[in-house]
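The following record pairs a protein chain with its ligand, nicotinamide-adenine-dinucleotide.
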Amino acid sequence: MSNKINIGVVGAGIYGHYHLNTYTTDNNVKKVVFCDTNEERLQATEKEYNIKGYSSVKEMLKNEELDAISIATPDPYHYEPMKDAILGGIKNIFVEKPLATTVEEGEELIKIAKENNVRVAVDFHKRWDPAYLAIKNDIANNKDKIVRGYMALDDIIDVPLKWFNWTEKSSPAWFLGVHCYDLIRFITESEVKRVYAVGNKQVLVNKGCNTYDSMQTILEMEDGSNWTVENSWILPNSFPKSNDGQLIIISEKGYYKNESYRGLNQYNQDKASVPNYLFMNFTENDASGFGVQPMKDFITAVINNTPFIADAFDGIQATRIAEAVHKSIITKEIISL
Ligand SMILES: NC(=O)c1ccc[n+]([C@@H]2O[C@H](COP(=O)([O-])OP(=O)(O)OC[C@H]3O[C@@H](n4cnc5c(N)ncnc54)[C@H](O)[C@@H]3O)[C@@H](O)[C@H]2O)c1
């Protein structure tokens, strides 16, 4: 492989634009193309970036020599483009979280990826968040042991109601929870043993959207730590950020608390906000922040043939936990993994 690679982005929606912004300004990328099944979006994106777009993965692969693809289709639709890419000869895939919204689909993807020698990276960007890395390092340096953890990640209600047309096929656990489950696995370097969860369906259902408002989960980890994870999709739109998050850890030797508020209050005209300036920053020639770093690291790992920081195994583990969360809510039982 030459030093620079060619990449195809699949899905040019909200997050696909972040992929495009990142790859089109990455010095390690030679060429960026994309595909989107929505004709209007395809044309608008071609104009916006002055790059070639296609209407499907298959068409894109027929016409381009690609080293990698980067999938940003809706949560329930990662399976088909990923399968088409694997069977179409692509050897390196970056996929948005969750890897899949069923364990069955995720396992099949992993099986065919293995059979075809394909490497898969999953976008669990919280592993790159400097606050969480500092906590993880401090615990390791102190040879500390986590006793109890709490993690919350919540979105304003416009996210499920206005941002997507696939909300009912996802949930706070699929969209937000998987970030938490993955980060907990990452920080504890341990797996989930048992899951118990409860959920509410009140507010969104009353607005004609059949998914959970809130999902609360207890995770028992193999290292003996116990965690509570809370995810909701109904924060009022007046919240000055589209999402909110907290992480609290009590360990044998310490106490850690992180809020997603990053210390900046911003007042523009009639709107106040608390932007997460550490997450993503785009200029004409550059992309930076822990939200784009997974994509940049994916490119360098492909070029250097080095391991991915979050791979297909991490993807399927988060999918297993999210599926167990849904099952526990419905059956009211504790689910062993
Ligand atoms: N890493 C993160 O923190 C983060 C944050 C937000 C969203 N995401 C993830 O990104 C993914 C996309 O979310 P979004 O907000 O951009 O959704 P979106 O609805 O804005 O965009 C999805 C796009 O995919 C296109 N599409 C659908 N099926 C396709 C297919 N088979 N082939 C090609 N294009 C197809 C749609 O036309 C649309 O343009 C989701 O899985 C979501 O969870 C990740």
